[in-house]
Specification:
The chain has about 280 residues and is α+β, with helices and mostly antiparallel strands. The protein is about 40% helix and about 20% strand. The protein has a domain of about 110 residues: Homing endonucleases (Endonuclease I-creI), CATH 3.10.28. It is built from nine helices and eight strands. One of its GO terms (molecular function) is endonuclease activity.
């Protein structure tokens, strides 16, 4: 699944999607001469992925935020910023493209480059690795297994969820168009959810139908995830195969699904990063 990232173009699409989910660029103010700083934030368990991407970019460093259980891949050297732009320019799909444009403007003005600001990419989601990066940033996989009890119906389902803010914080531009594209591709409706603690409203994509599961599996089997989320996906896929083949309510199916559910997400204690050796 991950060998496809040996192709520079596909790795660029993946990084673009990952950045548009969990990245940002800090531009210098008019009162200082600091370089722009390009950041992607990772949970600390995904440090091996941050290190791998750092090696692929060839410039930058990783900063650790121990209080937040996170690390940040940062690139600020001009040579590194040029490498990144070459990798991701023309592959953005969200309003965060405006941050990229500001970075390109800065390089063109201060370092004599003539980088062209390529437009938002309009290719179909199934044809590149952008969505894999976006899912690694903001997607989640879960298994629901409700055991039969008096007054409670037995229920088994595989769920996927993708959540994103409604508007870009810096430009106030809507994420509606790209989230609608993702929802349509996964054969579901785009909904909204209001977070009780912050009162903020987010776009949310949730799916559990057999048709949607098949679409997502076909995509991720080709454009693999790279974060620790891959391990959750692989367990989720095993459970989903029972749903696809209608064996999820057999004794063997229920037993396997129960084990898979208990070892996913917060239940996972062991992490295997062999997939990063493929590219």
């Amino acid at each position: 699944m991950t060998i496809i990232y040996n192709k520079a173009e596909m790795l660029g699409f993946y990084i673009a999607g990952l950045f548009e989910g969990d990245g940002h660029i800090v531009m210098p103010t008019v009162f200082n001469n600091h370089n722009p700083r390009w950041h992607i934030t990772f949970r600390i368990k995904n440090k091996p992925l941050a290190q791998k991407l750092l090696s692929k970019i060839g410039y930058g460093f990783i900063r650790y935020k121990t209080k937040h259980n996170a690390c940040v891949l940062t690139v600020s050297q001009v040579k590194g910023l040029k490498v990144l732009i070459n990798m991701i320019n023309g592959k953005f799909r969200t309003p965060k493209i405006n941050q990229l444009y500001l970075l390109i403007d800065w390089l063109n003005k201060h370092h004599g480059t003539q980088i062209k600001k390529l437009p938002t990419y309009l290719g179909h989601l199934s044809k590149d690795a952008w969505l894999a990066g976006f899912i690694d940033a903001d997607g989640s996989f879960g298994i629901r297994y409700t055991k039969k009890a008096p007054g409670i119906k037995q229920k088994v389902s595989c769920r996927f969820r993708l959540e994103q803010r409604m508007v870009d914080a810096k430009t106030n531009q809507s994420y509606s168009s790209v989230l609608t594209l993702i929802a349509d591709y996964l054969v579901v409706r785009l909904n909204t959810r209001t977070q009780k603690s912050t009162k903020r409203t987010y776009y949310i994509i949730e799916m559990s139908s057999r048709a949607s599961i098949i679409v997502l599996i076909n995509y991720l089997n080709h454009y693999g995830l790279l974060s620790a989320k891959l391990l959750d996906y692989l367990d989720w896929r095993k459970a989903a195969q029972h749903i696809i083949h209608k064996t999820n309510y057999t004794q063997q199916g229920l037993a396997e699904i129960s084990v898979l559910k208990n070892n996913m997400n917060t239940g996972r204690s062991n992490f295997n990063w062999d997939h990063l050796n493929d590219f």
